[in-house]
Amino acid sequence: MALRIFRVGGGTAAEIPSSTVALERHLQTCIERNMATMLGVRFLDSEVSTGPVHAGRIDSLGLDEDGSPVVIEYKRSRDENVINQGLYYLAWLRDHQGDFEALVSRVLGPEAVGQVDWTNPRIICVAADYSKFDRHAVGEIDRRIDLVQYRRFGDDLLSLDLVTSSAGMSARTTDGEPGIPAPGRKTVAQRLAVAPAAVRELYEDLDGRLLALGDAHSVELKQYIAYRRGGNFATVKVLTTGLRVFLRLDPQSVVLEEGFTRDVSEVGHHGTGNLEVRICSADDLDRAMPLFKASYEAIG
Questions:
Q1: Percent helix, strand and coil across the chain, each to the nearest 5
Q2: pTM given for the model
Q3: In contact, 291 and 240? CB cutoff 8 Å
Q4: Most buried among 45, 74, 108, 213, by the most CB within 10 A?
Q5: Which DSSP symbol is given to 178?
Q6: pLDDT 10s digits, 94-138
Q7: Where are the alpha helices (DSSP H) in the chain?
């Protein structure tokens, strides 16, 4: 069912007509200026030239909350294949990692370069609509792709809806090649493979519970596994002694329990979220479920 918005007053409801006209340049500019709020991505640059060989321009470049490079493409006409454009520019980006990291340094500062994670770069497509073929193709393409649909309501209301999303490749090295880990650094999958059987069973149980919360999917990154619903609502680190889950909840809103929950807002850590939950047993998982659900609902 299509999203409908009503203006309610005086006991009556009047529907605000929606528009899906071709995406105007000023709307792209609005998204770029508010990219962190609207897409959860830090804006880096617009209309980025790919040089004479590739002969194209990337609509927008950004860096998401996980440190993943992001190519954002906007569909301006019905016949434009925005998914293929995004894939084309993602290939260019993988070949120009140094240029991207130099851009990150200029815009966000040199310290931000250390946050860049090339494990699973993203494509975000923004369009008024997608065909059933577009939606199906995303599931068949082994890349991390989000299809975002926009609709305008009147002159001052805009909706952005995540139509479908693909987690993409589960593991890649810093040079973009699959299967060979960076020297001295294990992927999450490798840490799981050598973890005690009890930890692996805990993770499988946790994974099932988080995905069962609703419209969520997981993405394996260099340091952790992110569970997303638009943005991250949980990030999971695998240790030999158990699991560490970071949630998007205010630690001050939770009664902290020694050895179970911890405020990490002032502590450097991998993963997004300021509430750390330590999972060492099935009982811990049961105790943590209300917190997982609260973090999930806070994103939506």
A1: 35, 30, 35
A2: 0.72
A3: no
A4: 74
A5: B
A6: 999 999 999 999 999 999 998 899 988 999 999 888 888 998 888
A7: 25-33, 35-39, 51-54, 82-95, 97-108, 110-113, 132-140, 188-194, 197-211, 282-299
